[in-house]
Amino acid sequence: MSDFSSNWLIASQSARFVLRERTVALLAVLFVVLVLISAWLGWQATSTVNQIYLQAAAFLAAAGQPVPSNPVLEISPLALMRNMSVYVALIGALAAIVIGNRLVSIDRKAGVLPLIGIRPLHRSAYADGKIAALLGLVLGLIAVAALMAVTTLLLLPALRLTSAQWLQLAGFMAISALYMACFGLIGLASAAWAKSETVGLLLPVTLWLTASFILPQLTANLNPTAAINPISALAAAPDTGFFQLSGALLGPLSVADAYKFASANLLDYLPQGLSSPSVISPVASLILLTLAAGGLAWRALTRMAMTQGEFDV
Looking at the domain assignment, is residue 307 inside a domain? Predict the structure, then answer.
């Protein structure tokens, strides 16, 4: 069997088994529902403001008064999708962690690793297949989110996106996939290295909580409640030596901050003059951290003891 056939077989079988998991299915459905709600809220708010403006404009025109410009047209239509970045950062990342964990945990709990180990199969094929399965499932969730966003923007008659804005939306979906993949790859690595199933899931969840709430406090004095608001999460850091130093040192490692600023820039709701405190651009940070997580996952998967890969009980 060729390497490509082996990778495809492992990836397809792994994805199929994971999709049967109730926890994974529940998180995936929750993510899709929240994305749908985000799109609906953006559509509803914009449609309401537009209807009020049309009625007011008709009244002012009939009274011979000057008609102001439509407030809907004064903001970028991409800003309507800003709540989607919060759901990706929270539920999307958590779903990716669980998917990554289950991709390996299922094999370890079932005790099938020794059967895989005795086959003429390179360890890299197993690792490549698992990583491919994770990326495929993450891209599937992002594709659903992208479909909802595109449908919402097309249904609003008052909004017309330019070619550049459609590219920005595609860029936002790409960095969202990177963000989710980063945590999913950490989930893969943890499940491969951990000696117990609980630790294998607890470690990446702890890292996710640290990245989402603790690092933003250290780099920008951002309270946890503000971190889940796409606007208040962009508050400027206090102009003190501590936060300048922490932003420079921890900024490149704060994947949540990188995603937050990259999303705000691509969806046109980044406040004027505000930029990331990191010395590395947010998109570059996301790419580098995801590549590092991928290398970590590949190393963990290729070094698994295939003869005794089950969890300790």
Answer: no
